[in-house]
Amino acid sequence: MYEFFLIVHSWLRWITLLLAVVVIFKSYAGWLGGGSYSKGDNGMSAGFVGTLHLQLLIGLVLYVFLSPLTQAAFQDFGGAMKDSMLRYWAVEHIFVMIVGITIAQIGRTKAKKAAEDVKKFKTQAIFFTIAIVLMLSRIPFHEAGRLFRF
Question: Which residue range forms the structural domain that includes residue 46?
Answer without folding.
Answer: 2-146
